[in-house]
Amino acid sequence: MTWRDPHQLGGRAHTARIVIVGVFLVLAAAFFRVQVLGSERFEVQSVENRLRPVTLPAPRGDIVDRLGRVLAENEPGYSVSLVAASAESLGVYLDRLDPVLQLDSAQRATALRRYGRRPSEPVPILQDIPFDMVSALEEQRVWTPGLVIEATPRRRYAYGAVAPHVVGYVSEITESELQSGTIPSARMGLLLGRSGLEEQYDDRLRGQDGVQFIEVDAMGRTLRLAGEETTLPPIPGETIHTTLDAELQQFVAETFPEESRGAVVAMDPRTGGLLALYSAPSYDPNSFVGGFEAEQWAQIVSDPDQPLFNRAIQARYPPASPWKLAVAALALRRGLVTIDARMSIPCAGGMQYYNRYFRCWDADGHGDISLREAIQYSCDVYFYQLGLKLTLNNLLHDAAELGLALPTGIDLPSEATPVFPPSTEYYNRRYGPRGWTNAVTLNLAIGQGENDQTLVNVVRLYAGLANPEGVMPTPHLVQGAGAGDLPSLGLSAASLQDLRSALIAVVDRGTAAGARIADLHIAGKTGTAQNSHGEDHGWFVAFAPAEDPEIVVGAIIEFAEHGSSVAPLVTRIIARHILGEDVTAAGVRVELPADSAPEPLPILPATTARDSTRP
């Protein structure tokens, strides 16, 4: 037996006791840190593992007309989501609910993709489900603990196909938009405005989503809703108050010729507030609620009539004779003519300019006439010479200064930019420095050539003619919009009155005489835009009462053949707004008398087919 020193054994025991005590102290400190100091953090983590957030969608704000009549609102709807512990269990749930949900392969794949991106959140499956489906799903809740059925706001458009290009529609956020990170507070199932005011003011309409929590067990199965103290209620979106007159908008939709394509814009010339904006053909935005099948969407976008296309702000047409008022205003502004000025070459049905003969719409000619009469009878020969007197450079510069080469800035998305040369460099680039002549001035002067305008831009021009100060207001649909620096025609009060008197003569004794209204002075201008793809397009733009204008209305109807056939539509709209009744009770002759229709255009060589416009 080996002898050991008692003192040595005592020292080792003492060291062991110190080590053991130290270990226990370290463990005690660790337990204290975890159980006492870190209790709050682990409690939160425990709660997060037990609770799953469910988004409470914020109701979108209403859209109302100027008198508070509802254009877009919310009504009760239902959506279905699933909470699953894994992709496999989500697939099981989908199989179990398939007799009720009847998802196609694309919808099923979308649900699985959504789960893969955010597995801890309820996966949206279907939006806007009918109540009978809700009832059928409730019967499956016992076997599908992850089922979440929510009462969610459903968009409703009170006027349907009457104002879809104004109001727009909403649809669910796409996968690419979710991934882009450009949309604040983006989430699966979020509804976004896709056109019209719904898109333009989407941020204000959307509001702020709320949150509600559901309790799940360790397997991720739903147990119950958490207490109300954990719920954050949603904040509804803002109500958008528009300048629109819903009754006038409905009248326009009902009055617009059936099976025709075109648009109507009605504006208050004093403010720029739009009273009506209609594009045909139309569509019902209520059919967009809840989404489309792929085949249905393909059918809509491939429709040759393009019902989603807003012809009031996106379509561009040769402005034809209504443009002559822009040329007249620019010439008066520069002091080149007066309202009674005559040109050196009387109208004999056309005018020779170097080696080309430019025709007037009236082959018999208008004779030696003044600017006032040239507007009244829409004489092309007079305006050919007025354009040359103004010069091409001045015409391009002054028109651009008035904003006629730019969008109006209307508060709707996707407004088109007019086609109008900013300078002669445009022609050099397009045709080469030697590929064009000053003859382009003649075409521009009568609203043809390299000149395509939107309806809303032409209406804005006429709002400037109707405005007492000659100011061209910014068209807008929401009250308070449209402020800022506004272009002015720069004409004296006398010159503005001269142009208005000429436009009154157009309706009283000129090319729009077939659309007169008893006891109501209307100032307006007809126009016929030559169309290389078929029948000519018809224009009419007018304002009233001529003495103190409160409304300006412009309309274009594709393939209408001539502008005088469009005039009765516009005067009916004006009478409805001012007189409060249909013009059939106000003395208008809706059918154009045969003897007041302009002569048809003569058959022209291809090189001069665009060298004249009819009124």
Largest sheet: 5 strands, mixed
Structural class, by secondary structure, is: alpha+beta
Radius of gyration: 35 Å
Distance between the termini: 133 Å
Low-confidence stretches: 42-48, 585-611
Mean pLDDT: 85
Q: Total helix count?
A: 20
Give the total of beta strands: 17
Strand content: 15-25%
Helix content estimate: 25-40%
Global geometry: elongated
Characteristics:
single chain; 615 residues; alpha+beta; five-stranded mixed β-sheet; five-stranded antiparallel β-sheet
Description:
β2 (63-64) and β3 (70-82) form a beta hairpin. Helices cover 34% and strands 16% of the residues. With 615 residues, it is an alpha+beta fold.
How do the strands and helices of this protein lay out in sequence?
Elements: H1 6-37, H2 39-50, E1 51-56, E2 63-64, E3 70-82, H3 87-101, H4 105-117, E4 123-126, H5 131-138, E5 147-157, H6 164-167, E6 170-172, H7 175-180, E7 191-193, H8 196-200, H9 202-206, E8 210-216, E9 222-225, E10 240-241, H10 246-255, E11 262-267, E12 274-280, H11 294-301, H12 324-333, E13 350-353, E14 356-359, H13 371-377, H14 380-390, H15 392-401, H16 425-431, H17 440-445, H18 455-466, H19 493-508, E15 523-529, E16 537-544, E17 551-557, H20 567-579
Parallel strand pairs: 2-10
Antiparallel strand pairs: 1-8, 2-3, 3-4, 3-5, 6-7, 8-9, 11-12, 11-17, 13-14, 15-16, 16-17
